[in-house]
Structure formats: C-alpha cells, structure tokens
Amino acid sequence: MPTLPATLRMNPIKNIEHSDEVVVFGGVLNSHFGNMLTNTTTRLWWFAENKDTKLKIAFVRRAREKTHNQEFLDLLGITADRMIIVEKPTQFKKVIVPDEACYIMTCASYKWVEAFDLINENVSKKMDPSPYKKIYLSRTAFKRFGSYDGVNEEFYEKFYERRGFKILHPEKYPLAEQVNYLMNADEIVSTFGTLTHLLLFAKSGVKSTAILRVPELWVHQLVINAVREVDWYWFEGTKNPMPTKHDHGIFLYWPTESFKKCLECQGVEYKPEELPGSDVPSAEYVAEYMKLWTYRFSQKEFLNEIKNKSIYDVVRAQRMFWFNQDLNSPTGSGTPAANSKPQQKRHPPPDKPFPFRPRRLLRLMRKSPLKRLRAGFLPNSGNRTLPDT
Predict the structure, then answer these.
(1) pTM (2 d.p.)
(2) Nearest alpha carbon to residue 114 among 71, 72, 76
C-alpha cells in the first residue's frame, strides 16, 4: 500500500481546505504566452474529447504569478466560472488527472494538438476564413521591458512583403483573429520563439521559415514541428556585435550567409540590389543596437543573465559580426540554414507518442551552432531520429 513520503509524514500539511467538488486537473497556468502554449496546454486534450462535461477545472499557478491568458481558455470553452485556481492545499472529493500529451523536452503525442484543433474549429464558426495564404509575423511593433528588442527587422519584412506576404503584428489582434490568420495560412515566416510556437494553431504540413535571433536550437520547437508535421526552415538572421540572450536580449537583424543559403534551399530568387552591399551592418544600425543593448543590460535583473559571459564571448560575437566566423566551429563558418526533409508519411497511432525523442539532442547543445543545426535536419514526418555524431 502506498505511503506518504517521509518529509510529509514528519511535516504534515496543516490547514488543508476540503471541497465536495469532483474536478479535472487542468495543469499549471503561465503568465507568459509562449510558456502557456508549450506547458499549460499538455492536459487540455481531455476537454477536446469531453466537450459536454460540466465538471469544473482545477488549475495551479507558478510561484509569484497572478495572471494568465483567459482569452485562450475562453476559445477552448473553459470560461472563468468553470475554473478553480488552487492557491492553498485543497482536498477535493475526486480529481480526474488527464495524462500529459507532451513532455516538452522528451516526447509528445498527437493528442496534444486536439485542444488547438478545437480552438480552430470554434474560431472557424465565428469568423470568415482569412484570405492571406502567406503571412509574416513581425516583432517590430512589440515593446518588451520598456523598449524594442530588435534593430532592422524591417529588412526581412520588406523582403517577404515583396513576395506577397501579409505583414502581421500579432499583439495588435485579438487571439481569435490571430488563430484565423494562422490556421488558414500555407506559409508562415517569423522570428524564432513564441511566434514559432504559434504553429500549434497552423494546419498540418504548413511551411515555416524561422529567423534565429541567436544561434540556439530549442528542442521543444522540434516537438511542435513534429506534431504539426511542419515543413520547416531555419536560418540565423542576425549579426549581434555583443553577447546576448534569446529570452531577454537585443538583436541586430541583417541578411546573413545563412539567409542566402536558406533562399537557395527554398528556390527563392532575388535580385542583388535587394540585399545591402556589405556583410557588415551600417554604423547607424550598430549605434541603435548598442543604445538598446546598454539600456537593457544596465538593469540588474538582465545584467545577471550575462554576467558570466567572458572576453571569449565578446571576441566570438565580434568575429561573427565582422567575419562571419564562429570560434566554436571547426570550419570557422557561421550557422548554415537548416530544413526538414519530406519523406513518406508513416503516422503512428494517434493515441501513442510519436517516435521522436529529442533527449539525444541535448548532448549536442554543448556543441557549436554549426553542429547543432546540422543535427536539426529531421524529416517532417515518420520516424524522427537523430543521426549519431
């Protein structure tokens, strides 16, 4: 018979609240929208399969967080009056705990996207389909921590706008409108991060081109691409003269060799005059970058994120900036473009995890950006395994 852990037996929880409710455990609420998409949603498939349930849903919050995205839950049919946010130890009459459909750094099931498919279905009943088949999701109007975090992303905006892409700033639209754009698009271009997590709302097989802000590969985006069977392309699209961080950093967007290789891989033609004459960003962009970088990292909470950077990191950033050469790469070259390779589709049963387990990729995270993105060449469906390195 199972027993309580020793710590609880020695220090029993006091002042437990009791409730006669039968509830369903919904998961952990996140205030950050990108984290909510990848973490809060892993048990919500249950509500897509039990649309008519009258049971209340119990959530917990992360420490020190007091807000969450109710708009997302409303679109799923989980209104505020059906929610119980547990903030004190509580014993319910019964708790139904759905399995997690995704362990974001390990594996996932196709059931994960059932909640997003239900949202798409609900939105399609309320709105006419978006006419835009090619969209570019931009951060140029997005302020974070009191300032913009990017310089010259307008270059990529204009480049793709000339090719028929509709430029969208997601934060300007209600979530339902964002979903309408995403689920009707055939091709999506955006910077890497929360914007690429929005592919969870896209149709299966959508083409995605992601602009890396720093040479980092996030395993959980591979999981998202796999469950949505995304035909994906990534390229390093910045020339950052100083060490920075993906989460809270400052980024200088510039057409790189990686960008040119990605265009070649996709068969996209361009005229030489569409690109700047120099591989090095102009002085005005560098000055704006340094102004934003100094403002951001002069704040204590952000300075702590880069305080362990050394002169090596500064030299590495400068070498990439001036010569497109990475100190960590044996070839000395920068990050290449990476993409998925379509293969014959072999779908596993929808109630079982797909056979892509990116745990083996974790050891590659210590390697150079070149090797990391070479390891990112994964098929967009079927048996998703990594090559031995």
Answers:
(1) 0.81
(2) 76
